[in-house]
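Morning. Coffee machine broken again, so started the prediction first thing and wrote up yesterday's gels while waiting. Chain of 394 residues, entered below exactly as on the submission form.
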Amino acid sequence: MNFNEYPVESLMYITNRPEIVFTHGKGSWIYDNNGKRYLDFIQGWAVNALGHCNDGMIEALNKQAQLLINPSPAFYNAPMAQLAGLLTQHSCFDKVFFANSGAEANEGAIKLARKWGKKHKDGAFEIITFDHSFHGRTLATMSASGKPGWDTIYAPQVPGFPKADLNDIGSVEKLINGKTVAVMLEPIQGEGGVIPATREFMQALRALTQKHNLLLIVDEVQSGCGRAGTLFAYELSGVEPDIMTLGKGIGGGVPLAALLCKSAVEVFEAGDQGGTYNGNPLMTAVGYSVISQLTAPGFLEGVRERGEYLKAKLLELSEERGFEGERGEGLLRALLLGKDIGNQIVEKARNLQPDGLLLNAARPNLLRFMPALNVTHAEIDQMMTMLRSILDTL
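Came back before lunch.
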């Protein structure tokens, strides 16, 4: 179909979109309405952990769709229980609540921490978060986020989220008072520009929160589910948080998220938390397929190896073009450009012929790479060739 035949004018404006309509995809490639294909190194913002239309996910979706789609969250269903068991088996957590988006999972984590503070810390409710963090688009998660300008869009903010500086333990310590109940952070700040928390900072933060009887919450919506080369990014530091949130990669492309906690933090009572679609069997069946594939023997080792390969290629390019290096973990990486040309590169990459390239500039001075976790060396090489051709035109 011609672009003008699609009724896109009926869609509410929320962002500037190019005049193409994506129609189908497979693995690392996605196709538009003109038949042009694009090498996808965004993958729905780290959502499609196994690339487009993964066979195992499709099989799980088709099979479950013929059995049971949504019996109501007031009842147990098999995929819900199976996925919860798989997550607790492969993490330090004991309990799971399923949601539909990372923002919803983070909203649940905030509620859980505040309820715990009400029961165990004399009503403490403040959660220390970090500058440049991103926790979602609900009013509470926007307030928790440290994204510049977000404190005024929908003012007034939800109170109770003082901001510290990532990798500066002193900035956290000085914010702790009698109202503090938790510290919440992304182990890798994705939207902030792929900024990892250091191993030392994570360990110091765990020690500090334990000293003051505070909860440690990790938002692994972007960094979790294999993205960092381990199943969960907190594992990189050898710490055990009290609460973790997952989204994006856990569903591999379908709307699924999760809130996990240790048994000691499970304080919700009947009616405190819920959601029409939480734990619905159609989505959790897909999630079970995704996590099963991620935890299969050798898969995460492969992610780490491919992450190192991408890192080496980006460093090589940085040296060659006089950029400022790269950073990240696993297959969540950033190329530091040193100048505000990121958006220009993104635009040129998409318009390449005959094949386009999908990249993201989380900040104007860097490019963020979030390929499928099963991306091949050949696809990484092809992306690098395409990127070089763009840089040659600047």
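The chain has a mean pLDDT of 97. Going to sketch it on the whiteboard this afternoon.
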